[in-house]
Amino acid sequence: MSGDSSTLSWKVVATCGQSESSDTSQTTVAGDGGPTKIIKVCFTSNSANLGKNFKLVRCHEGMTVRNIISAVLSSGCVGPNIQHSLCYGLLLKHLKSAEVHWLHPNLTVSELQLRYEQQHLEAEWRYDLRIRYIPADFIEKFKEDRTTLLYFYQQVRSDYMQHCASKVSDGMALQLGCLEIRRFYKDMNPNGLEKKSNYELLEKDVGLSLFFPKELTDNMKTKALRKMIQQTFQRYSCLKEEECVVKFFTTLADCYDYIQESFTCQLVVSHTHSHIYTLTHTHTHIQYTP
Known about the structure:
This protein is α+β, with helices and mostly antiparallel strands.
């Protein structure tokens, strides 16, 4: 999204949406706390709408990251009845590099501008709402908060599809993909995928790429792939939506540590020479007691 010029802008807008705005004009608006800045926070959707979702938040310079997160969650855009609001954080991504920054909840908008935004063009930054902190027994705790459970599921599944799906075995990819099919089509008859019309709807209108890695769909013959998907789907055809989510987490844990995230960082050593060492820092989702 390097051409997304509405990630940060100075204009009078505050709404939710699923598509990019073509209005790239920028104006300064006087507010109670001085000029107000519009920050676009991107988030994943728990609905069947697969489009990009975002919330435009009007901020003054003294507003904190925690305030921005609260504005998004309280708007209802993410989902209803959120109980674990402290689990959410803001990740700032530079769209033209691998640069990312987890933003401290107490960081103000003015500090954010000085520390990060001035390093690159405004349109090159994106704010992502992500689950940053999780309870020790998150599956049980999140069952009391369906919105956060599904949000974390969508986040983990998206990370899996981007970074891990191409590396797992065909059997594992089939299991995880069929669990998402069952969750996605939660009202479908348990034997519904056996019908040719239903499978063709899945294959052509929705697309197998939503559920399975390209390596699996490209390397297997069409009839063989269809048979494997139908057979694997039968194992999960009677599961309810939340049961699919829990089964996905427990199955994925066998091949992918979704509790940890790794980031590349640099360490400069020496006062006289710029010796730069590139390191990989592994971060575990911080656990908290609500």
